[in-house]
Amino acid sequence: MRRMDEWITGPPGGRLEASLKSGLRLASHVYGAGVEVRSWAYRKGLMHKESLGAPVVSIGNVTVGGTGKTPLTIWLARYLLNQGRTPAIVSRGYLKSGRGLVVVSDRDSILAGRRRAGDEPWLMARTLPGVPVIVGPNRALSSLVAVGRFSPDIILMDDAFQHLRVQRDLDIAVIDASDPFGNGRLLPAGLLREPPASLVRADLIVLTRTDQTDDLDEVRDRIRMLNDHAPLIETIHRPVGITYHQDGTNIPLESLSDYPVAAFSGIGNPDAFEDTLESLGADVVHAWRFPNHHEYRRAKLSDMVDRARDTGAKALVTTEKDAVRFPAGFSFNIPLWILRVELEPVTGGEHFARLLELEPHEPVRVPRSPQRRRK
Predict the structure, then answer these.
(1) Which CATH superfamily is domain 56-236+345-357 in?
(2) Residue spans of beta strands (DSSP E) within the chain
(3) For the domain 238-342, what is the CATH code?
(4) Mean pLDDT in each 10-residue stretch from start to end of the chain (375 residues)?
(5) 106, 69 Cβ separation under 8 angstroms
(6) What is the DSSP letter of 186?
């Protein structure tokens, strides 16, 4: 999507390019009208909001991909666990196979594979032992299942800022400070899921990658114009280590200093990943960028290994999100390093204490399908 964003705002081309741009902009207006009508209907009570059996914290954004929702959700879950709370995570499960509800993990083990769970939910389940993760297209139903099966005292609803059907107790909006609103246009001509003015619904606003922009003051001012009541929390994506993919051992971050590597990623913000490598002193001799949630194939990975060697790289480096999408059993004939990052609040982190003030609701029984009468 970010490549599409750059293409649309690029220099004028021929008639075909102009026609495509015009069509995308028209589609954006139609999409925006639908967003406004839906939002109005919920505000006026014409569309019903469902109340669940536990307090709900929505974590989402107004743009597509790459803002840092997954690292934030992981950070919040750990924060709640450390404070003695019992959270569960509910997600849509982007690009998961199948359409039904899937319990990805309970408090003891992972119950579903990556393809059934989706990339981010499976990564969260693997990273967060003790936290149930449930995915499904109907997040209200997924939340009821979470309440009925695991009795959480708080639900973290991932990627749900636009999911107005569920009544939430706290709305957290995540904004990437290095690219807050793309080109300012709605889908499909830009990155926006809804107009920036919708940030007025947010109870907390989390700015991510605040160390990767030179315009932080301008971003703060723009956010304050859109929402003057929500506390602003500023965070960074802090590198915490490197995992050697071949044997799972940990490598110090200092190993990247002046070391020739080839980087590759299929994430929403590849610039941020490559900037992080360079900030650690890596000599990035080549970089591949794939679409978000790219599914890696053996032939392409083999080509990348050969190309990395040709460019003088001594190792390949990628992200944790990419590492879960490798074909099973593929053997990299070159060292593969996986960079691990964690979200870290730098200012305003005390406002996360609002989560601890949310009181559990009365439990709701999960509806069951009526049994057939015996003849």
Answers:
(1) P-loop containing nucleotide triphosphate hydrolases (3.40.50.300)
(2) 56-60, 87-91, 102-105, 133-135, 154-158, 170-176, 204-208, 232-244, 250-251, 260-265, 283-289, 315-319, 336-347
(3) 3.40.50
(4) 45 67 85 88 86 91 92 97 97 74 96 92 96 94 93 95 92 97 92 95 98 96 97 98 96 97 95 96 98 94 97 98 93 96 98 92 48 40
(5) no
(6) B
